[in-house]
Amino acid sequence: MNIVAAGQKTIPVYTEFVGETYGISDIQLQARVPGWITGIFFKEGDFVKKGQLLFSIDDQEIRNKIDAATAQLARANSQKSNMQSDLNRVEPLVKMNALSQRDLDAAIAANNSAKAEVDAAQAALANARVEQSYTQIKAPISGIIGINNYQVGDYVSPNVIGSNLNTISAVGEMRVRFPISESEYLRFVRRARSDTSSVKTISKVPVKLILGDGTEFNETGRIDLANREIDPQTGSLLIQAIFSNKQNVLRPGQYVKVRFQTDLYNDAVLVPQQAVSQLQNIYQVYVLNDSSKVSPRIVKVGSRVGSNWIIQEGIKPGEKLAIIGSAAINPKIPVKPVMMNWNYDSTSVQ
After folding, report:
1. Buried b / exposed e across 175-212, counting CB within 10 Å, b at 16+?
2. Are 191 and 197 in contact (CB under 8 A)?
3. Which residues make Cβ contacts (< 8 Å) with residue 219, sequence separation at least 6?
4. In whole angstroms, what separates CA 50 from the centre of its chain?
5. With b meaning 16 or more CB within 10 Å and e meaning fewer, what string describes 314-341?
6. Strand (E) or helix (H) holding 179
7. Which of 13, 83, 123, 318 qualifies as a cystine partner to 111, CB 3.0-4.6 A?
8. What structural domains and CATH numbers belong to the chain?
């Protein structure tokens, strides 16, 4: 009968979470004034630079507003000059008692009103010029721009919900967002407080990324932030990791797996899975004693490590276990043990 000795090893625990990629900045381009698109000045899917002109919107109506505001400002300045001249004439006459104080108060009020009209006209002209600047839509960041939702000749308006023209993503670094369960979050917090292992805080743990084809991304990431609240609908906490994307392999919208160390089993007891039998929620092994007899023993198992089990209770390192398969065992009959050199070199729990 094949016999193996229970091993002992420190095992890091790695956990995988499903996440989605985002640009370090994903900026939606919105029209801030209504009008018809008159020009598109980039190629969809290309890299654009901050400040580059992307769209132009017909500004004829706004230029009319500027002309009207300019004329209104000229009238207001003219009126202001007239009121100032009237005030200049009234003041000496009041001092000579040729006019009453009431006449002076009226002239001062008219002059102040004229000044206010000038201020209002200047503000209207400034607003019109700001609106005109909105007809030239420029890139707020450098990044990759997507496919347009509108073309030349289409009418756009800021009052239409979801009417973004396009999206620019800065992809030199990428965000990966993934949820963890509330119980996992609490486990991380307790381990950080106890500080009994090398996994001190989740923010200090190196993060690996598994791409959609099963390959590992060549850059190591870091945990950047955690959301302020547990989602009451899913019972999960949203975590964000940051990855460098020097070769532009990652794009927004990819579904990936995030993998990092979440625990550490110090001096864990390991046995082959073939040495453990399971009946519902009961696990047991067959232990070889000094009389070459095999007796069953109930154990408490932990996580699987490759082709091995971590045994939390019931087995000590070095104890000899039988790999019985489908053979019938009589605890009263001695067996002929054949020692096997079992490989416990699996390095992580997944």
Report:
1. bbbbbbeeebbeebeebeeeeeeebeebeebebbbbbe
2. yes
3. 209, 243, 244, 245, 246
4. 22
5. bbeeebbbbbbeeeeeeeeeebeeeeee
6. strand 164-181
7. 83
8. 2-13+266-339 (2.40.420.20), 14-22+171-265 (2.40.30.170), 32-52+141-162 (no CATH), 60-133 (1.10.287)
| Cβ contacts of 147 within 8 Å, gap of 6 or more | 44, 45, 166
**Proportion of the chain in helix, strand, coil states, percent, rounded to 5:** 25, 40, 35
Cα 53 off chain centre by: 28
**Bridge partners, residue 17, by sequence:** 258
Residues 117-138: b if buried by 16+ CB within 10 A, e if exposed: bbeebeebbeebeebbebbebe
Q: How many other CB atoms are found less than 10 A from the CB of residue 260?
A: 20
- 251 neighbors 172 (Cβ within 8 angstroms): no
d(CA 241, CA 220): 10
How far apart, in whole angstroms, are the C-alpha atoms of residue 18 and residue 209? 10
Instruction: Give the other-Cβ count within 10 Å of 78's Cβ.
Output: 12
Which tens digit of pLDDT belongs to each residue from 141-188?
999 999 999 999 999 999 888 789 999 999 999 999 999 999 988 888
- Residue 236 is encoded by which pair of tokens? 């999960």
Q: Give dist(CA 273, CA 344) in Å, integer.
A: 11
